[in-house]
Amino acid sequence: TTFQDGGEEVEEGAVYNVTLKKVQIQQAANKGARWLGGEGDQLPPEHTVRQYETSKIRAIKAGTLEKLVENLLTAFGDADFSYISIFLSTYRAFASTKAVLELLLDRFGNLETSSHGEVANLNSFESEVVLRAEIASVLRAWLDQCSEDFREPPDHTCLLKLLDYLKNNMPNSDMESKVQNLLKQFQNQEAETVDGFCSTSSSDLVDGEELETSNPEEFSSFQDHVVAEQLTYMDVMLFKKVVPYHCLGSIWSQRDKKENKNLAPTVRATITQFNTVTKCVVSTILGTKELKIQQRAKIIEKWIHIAHECRILKNFSSLRAIISALQSNSIYRLKTTWMCVSKDILLMYEELSEIFSDHDNYLTSRELLMKEATSKFANLDSSEKENQKKSQKRLQLQKNKGVMQGTVPYLGTFLTDLIMLDTALQDYVEGGLINFEKRRREFEVIAQIKLLQSSCNSYCLIPDQKFIQWFRSQRHLTEEESYKLSREVEAAADTNILSPKSQKSMVKRISTLFLGTDVITPPKEQPPKSSPLGGSSGESTDSASVSSCEFNHSETEDVCVTPISSPEDPLKKGYDSDKGSIGSDKGSGSSKCSIFDKASGPDSGPVSDKSSGSMTCSTSKVLPVYNRQNGGACIIRVSMDGINDSVYKSILITNQDRIPDVTQRALLKHNLEPDAVEDYELVQVISEDKELVFPRDANVFYGMNSHVNFDFILRKKA
After folding, report:
1. Which residue ranges have biased composition labelled Basic and acidic residues (predicted)?
2. Domain that holds residue 296
3. Based on the domain organization, do 55 and 96 belong to the same domain?
4. Last residue of a domain, one of 489, 513, 546
5. H-type helices in 123-223, by residue range?
C-alpha cells in the first residue's frame, strides 16, 4: 500500500485534505508464466502481473458547524474512520450538545426537509434506511463514548429530545431502552452535587467528628503497601470519572471565572485529591513538634517507601504528590532531619525524583508513562543493587497474585498539553471556518487519557475503611503554619545550607516545572501569604504547586499542591495546568507522537495522517512554546501587578504583535476590561532588580530579551 498527497478540496463551508491510497488487489502469473504452468504466488516478480486499485481518502480540515455535523454521516464513506470519535471528544470546544443534536436530528434526521447530499434527490425507501442507519451509528457512538454530554439537570432537555426521536423513528429499539435507562440514572443522581465527584477523597466526616492532628503512631501502624494501595484506589476511582472534554484547554482555562466555579468538576476532583495527598505528607512530618529528629526522619523514610510502592502500582499521581511534598520548602529545609535518613532511602528518593525531572522537557516521565500505559506490571530499574532487589521482590509478589495493573497518570501532564495546544492553534481559519485540524491534535491527548482510563479497569483494589477514615480526618497545615513549624523544629534556620551531598542532585528547582500561567511564586524566605498548600477545600487556587515534572500548569486554579523548594529559591511555584506539556513519543490509541519535542516545547505537532484518519508526527511544522522563539511566534507569561501578581497567564504572541495587542489579550485572560489598554504598561522581568519597560507601540517579539524567562508584568501606569 502506498499513499500520495492529493492536495485539498474546497466545498461551500468546508475544506478537505485529500490522500490517494494505492492498494494491490491481485497478483497473477503473466502470459509466459501461465504457458509454463506457474502460479502467481510461486513466481519471482518479473514473471507476474500486479493489479492495483486507487481510492480517495478525504479528511475534513475546516468547516462550518453544519458541515462538521454532516460529515459525521459521511466520514465512513470518505474513509476518515476516526472522525466520529474525534468530533464527539472535542466538539464542546466550539458548540453545545443542543446545537449538534438539533442539526443531526432536525436537519439530517428529518427526511422530508433533509438537504443531505446523498438523500436530497433520492426519496426511496433504501435511502431512508441508509440515512437512519448512519444517524443510529452516530447516536450509538455518542451514547457509548460521551453519555455525560446529556447530563443537564433537572430537565435533561437533550436526552428527552433524543428519546422522542427514537420513539418516532426507531421504536422499541435497544437504543431507546438505553436512553430511558440513562435518563433514569441521571434523575436518580440529581441529589448529588458537583462536589459528589470528590466524595472519594474529600473530607466528608461524620457529624460531630473533628479534624485530627496527625498521630505518628497511628500513621506508622499502616503498612507501606497498604497506604499505597489505598491512595491508588482513591486515585483510580476519581481518574475513571474524569470526563475527557473537561480537560480541553478552551474549557479548563475558563474555570477561574466566577460563573464557571462548577466547571470541570471531574478534573477539580483529581486535583483536590492530589493536593490532599501532598498536604497529608507535610502534616504527618510536621504536625507533631515533640518528635525527635530520628522519629521525623523515619516518617520521611516511610513516605519514600510509600512512594516506591506507588511506583510499583504504576500510580504516578500519588507518586508525584508525595515527591512534591518532600520537595516543598517546609520539608526540604529540614536539613538536620534529612541527614538522619539512611543512604539507601536517599538513593531511592533520588531515583523516584528523577522520574519527574524537567530535563529534555520531562522526557523521562513522558516515555515512562507511555511505556507502562498498557503493560501488565511496572518496569523497575534501579542503579542501586539493594533497591533493585527490594523492587523485584515486591514486583514478584504482585505478579504472583495474577492480577494485572492499570496506570494512573499525573493528569497535569495532559492539562498542560491541551492548554498549550489551545494557546498555540487558532479556533477558526480563513472564512470563519472551524479549525478541525486543531481538534485532531487535541484528540491525540484525549485518546491517551481514554486509554489510561480503560487500563484502570485492571486494578483490583479493596478499600480499607480504617485508613480512608484516618486519611480524611487529617488536619492539613496551611503554608504559613508548615513554614513556621519547619523553622521551629529545625535548629538551623539557614535554608541555603544543603543536606548531604547526595541530596544536591535529588531536590531540584521545580519552579520551572510550571511554565505556563497561574504559577505562584511566594516571596523568598518568607512564609507565603497565599492560601494553604494548593488552596482550600481541596482546590488549590492558582497557587498550589508541586513536583518537578511535566506539569507546567498555566492557568490552573485548583491544581495542585505544595510549593516546591530549592536551596536558592525556598518557595516555589504552583501546580497549574495551563503550562507545560505532555504527550509522549509513543502515542496511545491513534496518538503516534509527542505534542512537544525533547528540546522544550511543542514539537512538530502531529498532523493528520490522511491515509488512516489518525495522527502522525510532522517535522515541518513547529508550534509556539514558552521561553523559545520559534518561527516568528512564542508563548509568554503575563501577571497582573498588584492583583494576584504571582498568577501568570499564557499569551501567544507573534512577530507582528505590538504592545496594545498583547496588553488587550492579557487583560482578557485575566478577566479584566480590555478597553483599558492605555492605562497599562508591559514590563519584562529580567532579574530580581532589573526589568524592561516597553514603549507604547513597541514590537514585543523583537523588543523582548530572549535570553531570560519570558515572564512579564502588566502594571497600571503611574
Report:
1. 569-579
2. 224-489
3. no
4. 489
5. 125-145, 157-169, 174-188, 216-220
Number of domains in the chain: 4
The verdict on 231 and 302 lying in the same domain is yes
3 within some domain = yes
- Residue 327 near residue 509, CB atoms below 8 Å: no
What does DSSP assign to residue 105? I
Evaluate whether residue 34 is within a structural domain.
no
Radius of gyration of the chain (CA): 28
**Using CA atoms, how far apart are residues 212 and 465, in angstroms rounded to an integer?**
17
Query: Which residue type occupies 44?
Result: P
Do 324 and 231 reside in the same domain of the chain?
Answer: yes
> How many C-beta neighbours within 10 Å does residue 26 have?
11
Q: Which residue has the cell 496511545?
A: 588
> According to the model, what pLDDT value does residue 440 have?
94
Hey, how many other C-beta atoms are within 10 angstroms of the C-beta on 550? Answer: 31
404: left (phi over 0), alpha (psi -120 to 50) or beta: beta
Q: Which of 204, 274, 269 is nearest to 242 (CA)?
A: 269
- CA atoms of 221 and 590, how far apart (whole Å): 45
Residue type, 208: G
For residue 208, report the phi and psi dihedrals to the nearest 5 degrees: 90, -10
What's this model's pTM, rounded to 2 decimal places? 0.69
Judge contact between 408 and 453, C-beta under 8 A: no
47 CB neighbour count, 10 Å cutoff:
16
3-state DSSP call for residue 51? strand
Name the maximum alpha-carbon separation found in the chain. 98
Q: Which residues pair with 652 in a beta bridge?
A: 635
> C-alpha angle 132/133/134, rounded to 5°?
90
Any domain includes 477: yes
- Residue type at 20 in one-letter notation: L
Cβ-contact 558, 541 below 8 angstroms: yes
Q: Which helix (H) or strand (E) holds 519?
A: none
How many Å apart are CA 708 and CA 718, to the nearest integer? 26
Mean pLDDT, consecutive 10-residue stretches, the chain (718 aa), reads: 81 91 65 52 57 81 94 80 92 94 85 46 65 89 92 90 91 92 88 46 40 72 94 96 92 82 90 95 89 91 95 93 94 91 93 82 75 66 56 60 78 89 91 95 94 91 93 90 88 42 38 34 38 35 33 36 35 36 35 36 35 36 73 88 75 90 89 83 91 91 91 89
| Residue in 500, 558, 550 with CA at minimum distance from that of residue 320 | 550
Say if CB 435 and CB 425 are below 8 A apart: yes
Q: Is 354 exposed, middle or buried (0-12, 13-18, 19+ CB in 10 A)?
A: middle
Q: How far apart are CA 662 and CA 707, in angstroms?
A: 20
Judge whether 507 lies within some domain.
no
Say if residue 52 is in the same domain as residue 79. Answer: no
CA 438 and chain centroid, separation? 16
- Contact at 8 Å (CB) between 291 and 340? no
Question: Would you state the pLDDT for residue 599?
Answer: 34
> Are 588 and 372 within 8 A, CB to CB?
no
CB atoms inside a 10 Å sphere around CB 457: 11
* Amino acid found at 459: Y
